[in-house]
Amino acid sequence: MASRRDFLKAAATGALALGAQSKLGLAAAADQQAGKSKVVIARDPALHGPDARLDAKRAADLLDRAITAYTDRNHPVEAWKQIVPKAKVIGLKVNGVGNKGVSTHLELVLALCERLQQAGVRAGDILVWDRSNEALESAGFTINTDPSRIRCYGNDTAGFEEQPTIQGSVKVNLTKILTRECDLVINMPILKDHDLVGCTFSLKNMYGAIERPAELHANNCDPALADLCSIPVVRQKVRFTVGDAISSVYEKGPVFHPEYLWHPNALIVGADAVAVDHTAAQMLARKRAEVGLPPVEAVGRPARYLATAADQAHRLGVNDPRRINLVEV
Amino acid sequence: MRICSNLKWAVVVLVIVAAVASTGCKKKAANPFPASGAISGWEKTSETRIFAASKLSDYIDGDAEQYISAGVVSTSTSDYKFEGQLEATVDVHTMKDPDGARKILETGVTSDAKKIAMGDECVQYAQSIAFRKGNSLVRIVAYQSTPDTPQALLALAHGVEAKL
Predict the structure, then answer these.
(1) Which residue of B has its CA nearest to A98?
(2) I need a labelling partner for A215 at 20 to 30 A (CA). Which of A61, A209, A227, A240 fits?
(3) Domain annotation covers residue B42
(4) pLDDT tens-digit profile of A269-302?
(5) How far apart are the C-alpha atoms of A167 and B23, rounded to whole Å?
(6) Any idea which fold A39-328 has?
(7) Of A207, A188, A208, A223, which Cα lies nearest the Cα of A304?
(8) Is residue B18 domain-resident?
């Protein structure tokens, strides 16, 4: 059984993504750690049944497998207790840009909500959120602001900070869901090809935390994306990724194009968002090569934000595979 | 004095008639979305939402740029359901000119696309259909794949095309 200390070591360079003020105690910076960032890919080829529908029970089992492998715990509830602090509001940042076709799966979110409650989080302290109510509803979520139940709403319900935050190249108005309502955010992106940045996953999902994200699209979102994720409140609160790679589009993303639909049937989890994104981008690159599509770099949309996020100025995590401890279960 | 007054009234009447005539001459903006039941089996399940080009990223963030560079004026969208099960979304992009619609449609065409005789150009896949007609570019996407999906999408597309 791994100790809390072991878990913290395993998270290693994810320390930066968790932030220096993290309750998890990951104050050690990446350059102070000799260890690697741990990323887990959990797969289940039978995740979709014969009717092509996602099997909710298998999705929950897959989540359990991913999180126990990540934490080296035997029981998922114990694993979640290790990750989330008690008596705090936990945000689950999903992604509904792809409507019902390719958005964070409701079944996965419900499974995580269940485990969090079993780990001692009150239902009303769980807040599922995205950029807008419309995005959530189009992805199959039901809007709820009743504080006695699991809440679910978009930035349009909570509003944005009136004072912009400036960080590097970006000047943004952050959602109050992030700044005021959540104490910790579990990032739940969905893996997709992206028309501007090649691959969208964990870091890019934070575009859903600001007003007018389209203003940060220039130059393949670089360095805007890394700058955005370097804002202290983002660093400190967005601490863990449960990445949905159950379904994906390998071309023409981020919107849903069913002709490019693909089922990796996987979850990618980790505390180092850059390492998670690097792993996801590799998965996407392999699929594109398999079907004969050119690499995203060759079609003018490289995921250059990964290198920027890992550089000395941002230090959000690592994108060097030699420094990623990739565990596949 | 009386002549002057009559002249004033004549001018006012003329202005009103001209205004009414001018309004009447304008082509009424088409509503391309078939109502529930207008196409056999299809039910319109949402209100039509309209996004101006400047707000398109609210709807298709990350994908709006290619439409804007091709000259999109506005995008209208509505959800549908076929026989209570198959869900679909209809997007109607109104472009500045037919060339913009052609540019977007051709960019997305792959070798497995099935050419259909509809509008100025139409392609169909297992779960989607897209066509252009004049300044309009229409894309219909289904969220489930069933044996009935292609035929159902084709029928809905014909219904939209007839209203453009």
Answers:
(1) B60
(2) A240
(3) yes
(4) 999 999 999 999 999 999 999 999 999 999 999 9
(5) 51
(6) Rossmann fold (3.40.50)
(7) A223
(8) no
CA distance B110 to chain A (A): 9
Cα B150 to Cα B162: distance, rounded to the nearest angstrom:
18
Mind listing the pLDDT tens digit for each residue in A50-101?
777 899 999 999 999 999 999 999 999 999 999 987 768 999 999 999 988 9
The domain total for chain B is 1
Secondary structure of residue B103 in the 3-state scheme:
helix
Helices (H) and strands (E) in chain B, counts: 5, 8
pLDDT higher than threshold 50 for residue B39: yes
| Interface probe, candidates A97, A255, A288, A291, chain B, greatest B C-beta count within 10 A | A255
Q: Is residue B12 part of a domain?
A: no
B104 lies in some domain: yes
The β-bridge partners of A152 are A128, A144
Q: Is the pTM of this model over 0.90?
A: no
Write out the residue range of the structural domain in which residue B98 sits.
Answer: 30-163
Nearest to A196 among B65, B89, B143 (CB): B65
Q: What is the ipTM of this complex?
A: 0.77
In tens, the pLDDT along A157-172 reads: 999 999 999 999 999 9
Residues in chain B: 164
Chain A, chain B: beta-carbon pairs less than 8 Å apart: 60
Q: Which residues of B touch A (CB under 8 A)?
A: 49, 57-58, 60-66, 87, 89, 108, 110, 112, 125-128, 141-145
State the CATH number of the domain containing residue B92. Answer: 3.40.1000.70
- What ranges do the domains of chain A cover? 39-328
As beta bridge partners, residue A325 has: A38
